[in-house]
Amino acid sequence: MQFEVWAPQADRMTLHCAGTTRALERDPDRAGWWTGEAEAADGTRYGFAVDDGPVLPDPRSRRQPDGPDGLSAVVDQDRYAWRAEWAGRGLPGAVLYELHVGTYTREGTLDAAAERLGHLAELGVTHVELMPLCPFPGRHGWGYEGVSLWAVHEPYGGPEALKRFVDRAHELGLGVVLDVVHNHFGPSGNHLPAFGPYLTDAHHTPWGAAVNLDAPGSDEVRAYLRGSALAWLRDYRLDGLRLDAVHALRDTRACHFLEELSAAVDALSDDLGRPLFLVAESDLGDPRLITSRKENGLGLHAQWNDDFHHALHTALTGEAQGYYEDFARAPLAALAKTLTGGFFHDGTYSSFRGRRHGRPLDRTRVSAHRLLGYGQTHDQVGNRAQGDRLAAALSPGLLACAAALTLTGPFTPMLFMGEEWAAGTPWQFFTDHTDPELAEAVRRGRRREFAAHGWAEEDIPDPQDPATRDRSCLDWSEPESGPHARVLAWYRELIALRHAQADLTDPDLADVKVAYDEEARWLAFRRGDVKVAVNLGKEPASIPLGTGRARVLAAWEPVDVPGTDGLLSLPGESCVVLTQP
Question: I need a labelling partner for 225 at 20 to 30 A (CA). Which of 44, 181, 196, 351 fits?
Fold first, then answer.
């Protein structure tokens, strides 16, 4: 078997494989690359030594059986016998479901999660979006401090467990999306700098030195990230990738890394004959991310839309701290603007940032499905002091309104695991750092962050305490009981409506018509023949929906169709979906 590694600054490279060593040779055709052959098969342990340094894992390791600091293991990608025939499932018409493997079940493994996929098929979602799976120190964590960007976290089950999960999802008709982190590497277990200039001091990010996308040596670093992305889609038959915090990808080159990546993914899609897509997380408010490369955009297929979330959250909760400040002055107006224009910040002044922010979205060129809309995500729940979900503070009626706005709105909907039954469990920030100094620094930093906002230290869960992760695991005894069952039935009904009513997947943002009353706290919008009304106030509201016959498609509380005056009487904290007969 041939081994290869990029180490442009090394004088010598040694392969340690299955208890033997051999010197690698410089590749005459590729600058900075070293190659050599050794006997190896699936599972064979190996590593590389740079000059006279320690044996380190392969930067392109497909498996780390003993964690990020251990030896790599060979993976024969053809060894797994796929069961499901899969033609792919694209993003238009999708309903996504964000899932964290380590807390979706108490076992915290891919195999255990796969056993619960039937629930998602019955719910009606189309794609499971897995939070990051790359190896990180310890057993439990969010996954955003991963290293070894080509491998699967071993406590989750490793490479074959991911294939079994994807296979089962495809058998049930579910696509699978993976959250990948290209903007930084974890602070522990990252050995890449020993091999080459994977990082650069030319730019800085919240996590330190930036990933090298534009300094000397960046061609190979970009190829490393691009190759990792394509490997997930090809070797594990994934349907899409979610790209974490792309605003932290510092790249001054004429061809941005994201443009290069989107071109490579589109080419792979053509080669495989099935749809593939990239979804960005971005706070830039920049439509160029999701504008086609032919129109001088970066060519990504979609992006998360935090503006919709922030407007919805402030309308539901009244919170006004931090970035909610910009939305809290007139939350229903903010919500109406996002429903019709995509972005709230489209060049307007942001008091939170102290400057103008964003750029208008051209509704004639960008389809609504390219923006993901959501009421909750891992970030928006887990980054709260106590990881409390909306269900901890809102009535079932307001939760139903949030679901109606998300699942009948113009954007591609995304749910956060457990949201569909108003889970009573929190989802808190937890880590399992094996370095005591790093663990203590994270613990102190978390408490210091929230102390600045008035929280007592003892009220902030200790990220390193195993109980913090345990509290965050879903309780699977909840979904079919009491008020949880009613909320779950409502989500199923709305998702079924979205699939059945063509107007609810119409990609034309310009066709969305919205009316609202800030003081009375109601909002209504129309998409083709479908009308949706929500009353966030406690008192009944009289909502003008226009004259003409109407038929109720779904209602949280019993309602009568509008009379000849066109007024809908909607109970407090309730919602309804209607259509013309």
Answer: 44
Residue 183 marked in a binding site = no
Active-site residue identified among 58, 129, 154, 244: 244
3-state secondary structure 37-88: ECCCCCCCEEEEEECCCCEECCCCCCCCCCCCCCCEECCCCCCCCCCCCCCC
Contact 211, 225 (CB under 8 A): yes
- What does the CA dihedral 139, 81, 270, 301 come to, rounded to 10 degrees? -30
145 is catalytic: no
Q: What is the topology classification, in CATH, of domain 502-579?
A: Immunoglobulin-like (2.60.40)
pLDDT in tens, 465-515: 999 999 999 999 999 999 999 999 999 999 999 999 999 999 999 999 999
Residue ranges covered by each domain of the chain = 2-56, 502-579
380 is in an annotated binding site: yes
Query: Alpha-carbon distance 64 to 47, whole Å?
Result: 11
Q: Compute the chain's Rg from CA coordinates.
A: 25
**Which residue is catalytic, options 281, 346, 419, 432?**
281
The answer to whether the annotation marks 247 as part of a ligand binding site is yes
Active site residue 66: no
Q: How far is CA 239 from CA 43, 179, 299, 388, in A?
A: 27, 12, 17, 31
CB 46 within 8 A of CB 14: no
Can you tell me the mean pLDDT for 405-422?
98
34 phi/psi in degrees, rounded to 5 = -125, 140
Q: Is 242 annotated as a binding residue?
A: yes
Same fold, 2-56 and 502-579: yes
Q: What is the CATH number of domain 2-56?
A: 2.60.40.10
Does the pTM exceed 0.90? yes
Contact 202, 218 (CB under 8 A): no
Query: Residue 306 annotated as binding?
Result: yes
* CA–CA distances in Å: residue 289 to residues 169, 182, 403, 451: 29, 16, 27, 36
